[in-house]
Write the structure tokens for this entry.
Amino acid sequence: MDWVSSNARQTKNYAKLFGTRAYALGAKYMKRGNAAFSTPRVPHTTPENPPSTWQNAKNTLKAFFMAPTCIFDTPTLMIYVGSALNTAAEATYSQSNVTHVLNCADKEDMLPVFYQECVEGYYHLSLRDESDEDASFADDPRFHSGMRDFLSAIFTSQRDPSHKATLLVHCVFGRSRSVAICIMILFLYYQHIEAPKSMIQCYEHIGKKRKVVALQRRFLVELNKFEERFCHDTQFKENWMSIFE
């Protein structure tokens, strides 16, 4: 792709992204009012002393515009956390060499899919970030089945350094939903290599890499529920560990 066509495509991508975001935000506000934007969050560092409203807004904007953050790197797999804006940038695929994309934004966020021809695998896990959401992804069999299939293709034992996988996990801003799923992925990986880390330890690890993250409070509850079941339900554990076979 030459420079002119590359820039034209990226400009078109950005215009489409911002246009759909404006429409989605308007629709959310009309449907739920201010409740659509008021979500209690838990920073990875000091949950007893959360950032001010102003600092939280600054972190949200910073997360949207910053480059994807590498949170995990092995000879066969690299994992990034990013925003919707990152998915519209050609550099994400040409410089970060992304091979797989996991979109954690809700269908109501209406995020377009960009550069799908550049990746080996794409999966959309629809998660709402609102505090009034009652659905539990930890108990949803569709989540377990779809995610296991997607992760199995990434963690396959047939993968080697010459065919390294690079996974971009994103939502809209890369602060909560995508982080929650990355915490779960890291939790499973460390279980697999028999160097267990708790969900909280995985959160702290990601937070040190991407300092703007702040989980929606219900996702912390969901992850704790997942961890509890993983530790006490043998069949549940075996099903998830099968992604590494």
The CA atoms of residues 22 and 109 lie 10 Å apart. The chain has nine helices and seven strands. The first helix runs from residue 3 to 32. The chain has a mean pLDDT of 87.
